[in-house]
Design brief:
The protein is an alpha/beta fold. It has 15 helices and 10 strands. Strands 5-2-1-6-7-8-9-10 form an 8-stranded mixed β-sheet, with helices on both faces. It has a two-stranded antiparallel ribbon with strand order 3-4. Strand 7, helix 5 and strand 8 form a beta-alpha-beta unit. Helix 4 packs parallel to helix 5 and helix 13 crosses helix 14.
Length: about 325
């Protein structure tokens, strides 16, 4: 990729803003697409996304716009950073404006609720099977990445050339990016790990100890591996950055919204499963508990931790009962 190519980042939440900031600092020509005009005005006036990424100054060369069709029609690369539950509604009106062979990089960790499609699956459905698609995933908190703290991510495409191009777009001194051709494995790992992180948070909220958290992470990883393999991905991918790496970060990091949601569950607090009145979204793991559970059911994959999280969130099952049921399951071989 040359420095002259234009990049549009769709979505001015924390992750979209962080990626746009990193790309602009690296000298890329970047436009950050903002959904609400009042949000755009606030960003433009303060040169800071106080609502989602406070304390990080937006680079002077980062352009801001609310005109998404114009931005994507002028772009060589589009980075989708819209939450999974809004992604189809955001991308569908833009389909006619996207020039081929524009590269679309999914930076969202989640499955579509109704179809249980991965985000690249949804993008193929909307944009056509010949769309040039890639995915960026792995263990990185938006606040840390935006501040230039060291992190490692993985970029995947359906072929080596696409994977390498996506890798080269994001790699910089502080951000090491690996490449992969296992798009499915990476997207399943990124979606399911959020659900397991809620279980880890619930364990911590119940004060079950570090050993219990380690057990949740390890057995949760086994669940994700089974699901990824059944969906057509590779188990070894889940053992990498987009699976194990991201799982450990999300289950233990202080900035993890999914762990925080689980922590509240474990403490017996009410956890919202929909957006609040201010428009702030809920953690992806809360939304994806349904889709991951349903996909597991469709593929015949046993995911007891995921199922327990779903029942705690949507059926009001107390977290302590959820843990007791998991511990009382019949003994079995580990592998």
């Amino acid at each position: 990729m040359t420095r002259d190519e234009q990049i549009a980042v769709l979505g001015a939440g924390a992750w979209g803003t962080a990626l746009a900031t990193v790309l602009a600092r690296a000298g890329r020509r970047v436009t950050l697409c903002v959904r609400r005009r009042e949000h755009l005005a606030a960003l433009d006036a303060a040169r800071e996304n106080a609502a989602y990424l406070a304390g990080v100054r937006l680079p002077d060369n980062l352009r801001l716009t609310a005109d998404w069709p114009a931005a994507v029609s002028a772009s060589d690369v589009i980075v989708m950073a819209v939450p999974s539950r809004h992604a189809r509604a955001a991308i569908s009106p833009l389909a006619a404006s996207i020039r081929k062979p524009t590269l679309i990089v999914n930076a969202v960790k989640g499955l579509e609720a109704d179809t249980m499609m991965t985000m690249t699956g949804m993008l193929s459905d909307v944009l056509g099977a010949d769309a040039a698609l890639a995915v960026l995933s792995g263990p990185g908190f938006a606040a840390e990445v935006a501040r230039g703290k060291a992190a490692a991510l993985v970029a995947a495409g359906r072929d080596e050339a696409t994977a390498r191009r996506a890798r080269e777009i994001f790699a910089n001194r502080a951000l090491r990016v690996y490449s992969s051709t296992d798009v499915t494995g990476i997207e399943i790992g990124g979606s399911a790990k959020n659900v397991i992180a809620i279980a880890a948070g619930a364990s911590d909220g119940l004060e079950l100890g570090a050993g219990a958290r380690a057990a949740v992470i390890t057995r949760g990883l086994a669940e994700i591996m089974r699901l990824a393999a059944a969906a057509g991905g590779r188990r070894e991918t889940v053992a990498g950055l987009s699976g194990l790496g991201d799982l450990v970060l999300t289950c233990t990091g202080e900035l993890s919204r999914n762990h925080a949601a689980g922590l509240a569950l474990g403490r017996g607090e009410r956890v919202r499963t929909d957006a609040d009145d201010t428009g702030h979204s809920v953690a992806e793991g809360i939304v994806n508990a349904k889709a991951v559970r349903n996909l597991a059911g469709r593929l015949g994959v046993e995911m007891p931790i995921t199922d327990a999280v779903y029942r705690a969130l949507y059926e009001g099952r107390p977290a302590n009962i959820m843990v007791e049921e998991l511990l009382s399951r019949d003994p079995k071989a580990e592998f």
